[in-house]
Design goal:
heterodimer, A: 324 residues, Rossmann fold, 10 helices, globular, B: alpha/beta, 6-stranded mixed sheet, 5-stranded antiparallel sheet, disordered C terminus
C-alpha cells in the first residue's frame, strides 16, 4: 500500500497530525504534545488496515481522528471522497454515520442503565426517523446476526460476559450500516477461546457487509490473522507500512523487527531473532531529535540523531529509516 | 525433595449465593530452580491456588488440602507469626498491576527496605547498600536517584522492576509471578520475562508463572499446569504439551490461537466457562467438548496416566483424536 489514492478508497489520510496543548503543572508553561505526526494511508472497502504500536504511540489518537471525535491539527482526512475538515456540518454529520467505533473495554463502553435493545436502537433513534416497531425489528435482526439470543433484548449489560458484551458493542456499531469500523483493541480484554469467536464474527461481518476495518492493536498474533495491510507507528510517526506478508516475513524497520521478536510465540521449539529493546518509550513532551526511535535502536548511526527519516519505498513497502 | 508440594488443594468461598468452589482438587509440585507455568482463562482458579499458598485469601475462603508443604514445613499447621517469617522472605509474589501494588505514599527505597528490615534486621546503611544492589540487579538505570522516587514518578515497566526487586530482596527460594507482564507493552513484557528467567538462573530460585498467554508459556516455562473452572485438567512438560495436548480443552485452547491457525476461520470452543450456578454434574468441560460422550455428562472423569499428561478426561486425545477408555485408566 502507498499514499497514492486509489479510486475505491473509503478512507484516506494525508499527512495527518494532531497536537495537544497541555499544562504539565500548576506553574509550568503550556507544552505541546505531538500525538500524531504526518501519518498517511488509505483504506479500501472490504479490507483491514492494522495499526500497531505500544501505549503512547498515537494509535488511539488516530482512531479518534478517523471517527471525527477530534479534528486533525493539520493534514487531510478524506472519507468517501470528502475532506472532513473542509466539509460543512451537514456533510460531516452524514459522514459520521459511515464510521463507527468499537472500544477495547466492553465493561465500560455500554451504559449500565440501558437494556441491550435500547442500546442498539439508540443510533436509529438519533439518526433516522424509523418507527419504534421498525427499530425493534432492526435491533432484533442485528442481534441474531452477531449471535445474541432473542431473549437478551430486554437484559442489562451486567448480565453478560465480556465476549457477549463485545458482540453487543459490535452490533451497536453496525446499526447504521457503516462502511468503516474502527476497532480499538477489540479483543485484548477477552480470553483466548472467546477471542477466537469474536475474531471469526468480525471476519464474517466484513465479508457480508463489505466493511473496511481500521484495526488498532498491540497484539501481533491477532494482527497477523486479521489484517491485509499493517502500519507500525512509534511515538506518533508511521515507521513502516506494508502488506501483511511484507511486514511479517521480511520486516525492515528496526522497531518492527523488535516488536516481532518481543511477541511471544506459542511454539516452544520456535527459533526467532532475539532483540530485547533497552529503555522505554521516550516522553512525548521531549521527543528525541532526528528519528524518534534512535535512542533505543541498536543500528542507529550519527545521521539518525540529526535528521528525521521519511517514509520511502524499499523492498516492497514504505519504511522510514536511514539504515535499511 | 520438592520445594513446594500441594496435594488435593481446594478453596471454597462463602458467597451470598452459597458456597463457590474456586479451586477443586489441585496438585502442584514445584522443584527447586524450575519454571512452572499455571495457565488458564479468567475464573480458572489459577491465582486463587497460589494466593492460598501465600495465605493471602480473605476470611470468606476455606482452604483444605491433604498436604501443603513448603521447604519441609507444613503450611497448614503453621502459626500466623511463623508463616509471616516465610512469606516475603523464602516465598514471595509479584502481581499483575505494578502501579496499584505499590504504596503511593512511600518512596521506592523505603518500600524495598521494609522487607529487609523486617526479615533480615538490617540497619539503615546496610539497607541502602542492598536496595541499590537490588535496583541495579533488576535493571533500573541510575538507582541512586530512583531510591527517592515515588511510585507515580515511575512507568509501568519501571514499577514492575521495583516490585521484582522487592520480591527478590530476601533471596527467596520461590517466586510466584501472577501475570507479571500482562499490563505492560510487548517490548517491556519481553524485558520483564527475560529479567525473571535470568534472575532464576542466577539465584537458583524456583519460578511459578501464572498466565493466560500461551506464547509466554511456550517461551519461558519448563513445565505447564492447565486449569479449567478450578480443576487441573492437564499437566506436562512444555514441549510435549504444545506438540500433542491430551485434554480436549488444552487442544481447543491451542487451536484457537491465531498464530496456530491454518485457515482464515479460527477453530473455537463453543459456549462459556461454567459459573457458580451452572456447574455440570460430570466433566466440567463436557458441555463445550466436541468429543463428549454420555458418561462425560454424568460422572466426573478420572486422571489419566503421566504419559497422557494426567489429563482429567474419560477419553484423552492423542494427536487430536480420542483414544479408548482403556488407555485412560
Amino acid at each position: 500500500m502507498n499514499a497514492i489514492p486509489k479510486p475505491s478508497a473509503i478512507l484516506e489520510a494525508r499527512a495527518l497530525s494532531r497536537q495537544y496543548i497541555v499544562r504539565r503543572g500548576m506553574f509550568s508553561p503550556y507544552a505541546s504534545v505531538r500525538a500524531l505526526e504526518g501519518v498517511s494511508f488509505s483504506l479500501e472497502a472490504g479490507k483491514t488496515l492494522a495499526v500497531v504500536g505500544e501505549s503512547g504511540s498515537g494509535k488511539s489518537t488516530l482512531g479518534r481522528l478517523v471517527t471525527m471525535i477530534e479534528t486533525p491539527s493539520s493534514g487531510a482526512l478524506i472519507i468517501n471522497g470528502k475532506d472532513v475538515v473542509e466539509a460543512d456540518p451537514a456533510t460531516r454529520e452524514r459522514l459520521r454515520r459511515e464510521i463507527q467505533i468499537v472500544f477495547q473495554n466492553p465493561y465500560g463502553s455500554l451504559n449500565p442503565r440501558q437494556t441491550i435493545g435500547m442500546a442498539l436502537e439508540e443510533p436509529l433513534l438519533v439518526n433516522t426517523d424509523m418507527s419504534a416497531r421498525d427499530r425493534e425489528a432492526a435491533a432484533r435482526a442485528m442481534m441474531a446476526r452477531v449471535g445474541l439470543r432473542p431473549e437478551f433484548y430486554g437484559r442489562y449489560p451486567h448480565m453478560f460476559s465480556g465476549g457477549q458484551r463485545q458482540r453487543i458493542a459490535i452490533a451497536r456499531a453496525l446499526m447504521l450500516n457503516p462502511k468503516l469500523l474502527v476497532l480499538d483493541e477489540p479483543v485484548s480484554a477477552l480470553d483466548v477461546s472467546i477471542r477466537a469467536q469474536v475474531l471469526n464474527l468480525l471476519k464474517d461481518l466484513q465479508e457480508e457487509f463489505g466493511l473496511a476495518y481500521l484495526f488498532i492493536s498491540h497484539d501481533l498474533s491477532v494482527v497477523k490473522h486479521i489484517s491485509d495491510d499493517i502500519m507500525v507507528i512509534y511515538l506518533g510517526h508511521a515507521v513502516e507500512i506494508g502488506s501483511r506478508e511484507a511486514i511479517f516475513t521480511n520486516p525492515q524497520h528496526p522497531y518492527t523487527r523488535a516488536l516481532l521478536a518481543a511477541t511471544p510465540v506459542a511454539d516452544p521449539g520456535h527459533k526467532k531473532e532475539r532483540i530485547i529493546l533497552s529503555g522505554e518509550l521516550p516522553s512525548p513532551f521531549e521527543p528525541p531529535s532526528g528519528c524518534p526511535f534512535h535512542p533505543r535502536c541498536a543500528q542507529a548511526v550519527a545521521q539518525c540523531k540529526v535528521d528525521a527519516p521519511v517514509l520511502e519505498q524499499k523492498s516492497g513497502r514504505s519504511v522510514a529509516c536511514w539504515v535499511v | 525433595m520438592a520445594l513446594l508440594e500441594i496435594r488435593n488443594l481446594s478453596v471454597t468461598f462463602r458467597t451470598r449465593g452459597g458456597l463457590f468452589k474456586a479451586v477443586d482438587g489441585v496438585d502442584i509440585v514445584v522443584e527447586p530452580n524450575e519454571v512452572l507455568a499455571i495457565v488458564g482463562e479468567s475464573g480458572s482458579g489459577k491465582s486463587v491456588a497460589m494466593l492460598a499458598v501465600m495465605g493471602l485469601l480473605p476470611w470468606t475462603a476455606d482452604v483444605t488440602a491433604d498436604a501443603m508443604l513448603f521447604d519441609g514445613q507444613d503450611l497448614q499447621t503453621l502459626k500466623p507469626a511463623e508463616r509471616r517469617k516465610i512469606i516475603g522472605k523464602d516465598m514471595s509474589m509479584i502481581f499483575q498491576e505494578p502501579m496499584s501494588s505499590l504504596n503511593p505514599c512511600f518512596t521506592v527505597g523505603f518500600q524495598i527496605g521494609e522487607a529487609l528490615k523486617t526479615h533480615l534486621g538490617m540497619d539503615k546503611a546496610q539497607r541502602k547498600v542492598r536496595t541499590l544492589e537490588l535496583l541495579d540487579q533488576v535493571g533500573i538505570t541510575d538507582p541512586e536517584r530512583r531510591l527517592a522516587a515515588f511510585p507515580h514518578q515511575l512507568s509501568g515497566g519501571m514499577s514492575q522492576r521495583v516490585m521484582i526487586a522487592m520480591a527478590l530482596s530476601c533471596r527467596p527460594k520461590l517466586l510466584i509471578a501472577d501475570e507479571p507482564s500482562t499490563a505492560l507493552d510487548v517490548t517491556i513484557q519481553a524485558q520483564i520475562l527475560d529479567l525473571l528467567v535470568s534472575l532464576k538462573r542466577e539465584t537458583g530460585m524456583a519460578l511459578v508463572l501464572i498466565t493466560h498467554d500461551m506464547g509466554v508459556v511456550a517461551e519461558t516455562a519448563e513445565r505447564v499446569i492447565v486449569q479449567y473452572a478450578g480443576r487441573q485438567v492437564e499437566q506436562s512438560a512444555t514441549i510435549p504439551l504444545f506438540a500433542d495436548p491430551h485434554h480436549p480443552y488444552t487442544h481447543g485452547l491451542l487451536a484457537a490461537l491465531p498464530e496456530r491457525a491454518t485457515s482464515s476461520r479460527l477453530p473455537t470452543i463453543p459456549g462459556m466457562v461454567p459459573g457458580q450456578f451452572n456447574r455440570p454434574a460430570g466433566c466440567l468441560f463436557a458441555p463445550r467438548c466436541a468429543h463428549a460422550s454420555a458418561i462425560c455428562h454424568t460422572t466426573p472423569p478420572p486422571k489419566a496416566g503421566a504419559a497422557m499428561g494426567e489429563a482429567l478426561c474419560w477419553t484423552p486425545l492423542v494427536n487430536g483424536m480420542p483414544v479408548g477408555k482403556g488407555a485412560a485408566a
